[in-house]
Amino acid sequence: MTFRTRLLLIFAIAVAAAVGMVELVVSGQAREAFETMEAHRVNAIVTQFDKEFQRRGDEIVRTVERIAASDMARDIAISPESSDWVDRAGAQASTNRLDLLELVAGDGSIVSSAQWPAKFGYKEEWLTSQPDWDSKGAFLRSEELPDGVTLALMAVRAVIVGDRKLYVAGGRILDKEFVASLVAPKGMRVLLYRNLAPAFTPAELIDAAGPIASAILLRPLIEQVESQRKEAIRAIGRGASAETFHALPLPGMDTNILGVLLIGSARIDLVTLEASTLRTAVLVAVTGILMAILLSWWATARITRPVQRLAESAGRVAAGNWGTTVEVSSTDEIGQLARAFNRMTHELVDQRDRLVQAERVAAWRELARRLAHELKNPLFPLQITVENMQRARDSYPEQFDEVFREGTSTLLAELSNLKQIIGRFSDFAKMPAPEMQSVNLNELVTATMRLFEAQLSKAGISAAAQLDPSLHAVQADSEQMTRVLRNLILNAVDAMPQGGSLTVRTQALGSGARLEVSDTGQGLTPEECERLFTPYYTTKTHGTGLGLAIVQSVISDHKGRIAVESEKGKGTTFRIDLV
Amino acid sequence: MRLTPSSPDALGVPKGFVLTSWEAGRRAVFSADENAPGGRPFPDTIEIQMARSLRDQSADLELGKADIVELGPNELRRQVAGRKVWTSSPVRLMALVFGPRITDVRVREALSLAVNRTAIQSVLLQKQGEISGALLPQWITGYAFLFDPATDMATASNLVAGSPAGQRSFSLAADDPADQPIANRIQLNGRDAGLTISVAPPTGNSDVHLVEIRIPFADPPHALASIAAALGLPEPGPTRNPEEAYAAERALLEGFRVIPLFHLPDVYGGGPRVHGGPVMTPLGEWRFDALWVEDRP
């Protein structure tokens, strides 16, 4: 990943993160505001319910008091025959617009029941258990009817005439009409659960239209209110159809939870608001990211262009072009870096020039030393031979012919030696380019080692070839590779004057090949290993020091690598890898 | 009247009158028989309106549209000035009759023990008639008291608990809509015993029917045979003495297919223009010949 790409990513992430945080903050504040508003609306509904509950309760109390104060109630209370009044409650309930009305004698037996006319004579012990009804307001009660149980808001008053007593218990059923009377704002609805059975009964959860379809979803909330006996809040559903329900317990006279009032608030407004905020945030983020990309493209171009030029220049330096410089166009850190880079390359060039010059001088010195050494050896016999021939001619003329003959023979031999020395130098100078062809290294090794069999045997060296049969043919110059192997074998022979073991190995390296020549000679020091391939360097008392230089030159021309491993006293291994 | 007799014979022709007009199920007109034994009746014409509910008959009497009407229990609670009331002996049997679906005798007996006849007779029937566990009334047989109609809710509950669950639920219909409150009370009593009773409309096919049967004879063998025929019970054998009659009646009630509840009288009320009477014999037969009616002002 480039520096510019990284910068672009950083800018984009920074913008997206900033927009995301803004979106989170806005969404959170919107949710908080919505929930505050919802709480206000729920409170309004609860207040409205309380008022309606109170209003209806007061109305029922007044109605029951009116019936209790009537002559009819007095007549029933003092009547010795209750059977004459069995149908009065129905008429009174109808007249007074009550759903429920029972006239109950002082002993608790029903004289007349509007909601269940057949129940006359049955006992209503809950009425006689309460000593003072006149101070009681309306209360919730689970009332049994012929077709089931219902939840009612009731009031009771007692008529006392002398020692006779009559209870008037009247009320109204809390049903869908009651729920319909609670006007909920838009987006809210009111439900009433009538807790009339031991277990949750979906049909008892009603709204203004009757039982609701999805009652089962509210079961956990209702059961929570019943068990905890306090208000509870829970979100029902997901997404736009979600609703938050506030559930309030409605206790009866004996504190049992007889009903649960549920106020549902649709979350569609909040979901829509959040979705809108999210859309806006995404739009802002996308726009911001695009803007950031454009701006950062321009900005990073300004920032990275000098860095890029520095990187390119550093690459060129690494490639060997040490004279590379960078244009300095600013005075900031990048400019300082560019100036430092230019100084560094300048120093590098100077140092390289000095090093080349020094090496060249050293090479010339080494060459001169080597030439002097190589040429001095044949020149001394030449000088001795000529002086002997001059001495014989002056002092022993009769022996001059013989001396001349021997002298000329020696001169020719030494001249041949000089010629050979000059030829080797000439060969190194004129190393030809390799002519690549398919070469089987195993065959090359076998053939070359056969040439040295006699010499190796004479030197007391045991030779072994460990050849990899899976070795493929490689592209190489056969003649030059033969020369390489010959030089390495001769070096090994020179390294083992007391005899030893010579091992030549081949090994397949993928599509390439590895060639190793190991001896058990005296070995080399690490310093000697470092300088081993330097031209004219040799550890031997004879030789030009060009053999391994030629080997390295050939391997380099073959795009290969040569390495040496050696341990003093144990031997040396040359390893050549060809690709 | 409430009934809709299918023929003039079923309606019964009042003594001293002859039928002059018959509209089945609606109206019958009788004229005084000038040659009637014992002399011509006082009224010239009697018009009988049929299929009139007790409430309509009461309204007709109040509005002067009718001079003599049947009175239901509700009317008996009212004290109306100038009204005359004639009551016969208990000539109608009110009973529960089980259909074939309720095969478990424990359920039938449980309902018999659960019904609080006293409360119904005292309140809903306004003390009319007699509580009874017998098919024939006491005044005919003299042994009706041997059929104990007492309520025993504990025994009823035990019987229900031992019965199959499918037999505990059944429907009940009152053949006469005027008897609907009694059916409702029986439903409530049954519930206390553990029975689930649904009160059905009179026209439905119910498992149990609340019926009223008129007892047309004053002698036990004929009366018992008549009731057995009306209720679909086996015809009782001939009886020569009260012991055999008792045994025959006891046999009919074995298995609780029929649960006698009450023996009810016919009750008629007359408007202020009506004088003389009574309007019926102790057996409930009409006797209009001794009545006379004032002219309308």
Give a brief rundown of this model.
Chain A is an alpha+beta fold and 579 residues long. Helices cover 52% and strands 21% of the residues of chain A. Chain B is α+β, with helices and mostly antiparallel strands.
CA(first)-CA(last) distance of chain B: 26 Å
Largest sheet of chain A: 6 strands, antiparallel
Number of strands of chain B: 12
Quote the beta fraction of chain A: 15-25%
Residue share in helix of chain B: 25-40%
CATH topology of the largest domain in chain A: Heat Shock Protein 90
Query: pLDDT under 50 segments of chain A (min length 5)?
Result: none
- Can you give the mean pLDDT of chain A? 85
- CATH second-level architecture of the largest domain in chain A: 2-Layer Sandwich
Tally of distinct domains of chain A: 4
The ordered string of helix (H) and strand (E) elements of chain B is HEEEHEHEHHEHHEHEEHHEEE
How many distinct domains of chain B? 2
Helix proportion of chain A: 40-55%
Determine Rg of chain A (CA atoms, Å): 59 Å
Please tally the β strands of chain A and state the result. Answer: 18
Say which CATH homologous superfamily of the largest domain in chain A is assigned: Histidine kinase-like ATPase, C-terminal domain
Strand content of chain B: 25-35%
Q: Tell me the name of the CATH class of the largest domain in chain A.
A: Alpha Beta
CATH topology category name of the largest domain in chain B: Dipeptide-binding Protein, domain 3
